[in-house]
Structure formats: structure tokens, C-alpha cells
Amino acid sequence: MDGILNIAETFEQIFAELKKEYGCTYMFYLYEYGEHKIAHSSHPAWYDLYFKENLIDHCPLLRLGHQNIDRNFDKETIVRWDSVNCLTKEESNVVGVRTEFKICHGISFGRSHGSFKEYLGLATDATNQCFPTLILMNKADINYYLQRLRSIANFQRSDNVVPLFRLDKS
Prior knowledge:
Beta-Lactamase; single chain; 6 helices; alpha+beta
């Protein structure tokens, strides 16, 4: 299996690059096409709790992201997490639990086109308050990472397995 592309490892490689370059300590990517979803989280414990405890149903980031996409002709949105106001006690609870996992000062990108949707959430620890600004200042780089993530998701959904060959013979 050494020569097989591992999707999870590739996501982790991209996360490691974002961590090194920008101080990113959390990454979530979701790719939806029709009824199919491909998701990856750099924090499995948070991801499991978020879905198992139905925190997703009360997430203020998701609420605002969907509202923005529904109102936006281009079907794209950027959400700075620190700018989102909680409307209910349940939403405040979601933010509090996320903070307990040290997932803070994030920024999310969402895009919808036909039956295709993708979401990228990036965050850092509580000390890095300038993180969203840093990410926005480097939006061209983030678009490149999104393109790579989308390519991986498209590859995975195509059910292809491609062996990777070493070019050097050592």
C-alpha cells in the first residue's frame, strides 16, 4: 500500500502546511455533491461531539453561512467567527464548547453551485486574534489550498486509486 494515495494523509498534509504557514490549529473541509458528502476534520473529538450531540443544529456559523449563501447571487460567503452574534442560548453553548476544544478566532469559506457545495473552516488558538485577518490577507494562497482540497474530494468521489511512483530510482 506504500504507493497508494491516502486521502486522509493528503488532507493532513495540507493542514500541516496551513499550520506552519499561518498558525492554523484547526481545519474542517466539507465537499457535498448531490446526496454525497466528503468531510475531514483535523480535530476528530470535536467533530464527533459536534454531530453526535447535534451541536450542528444550533451552530451560529452554519446559520449565518447558509443565510449569506442564500442571499448572495454568487453563492459564496466568508464568515469571520468572532463577528457572528449568537441569537439563542443553544448557539452560545456551541461557541462555548468549541472554545473548550481550543478552536478559536476562525474564518469559514462557503461556496455553492448547482448540486455542489464546499465549506472550509480554519481556526487557531485563543492567543492568535489576528488569524482571520492574516488568512484574508493571503486569500490567493487559501484559494490554492481550496483548489487542492477540492481536487482531492473529486478524486475520492470518482472512486479512483492511482499508484504513486517515485521518479528517482534510489
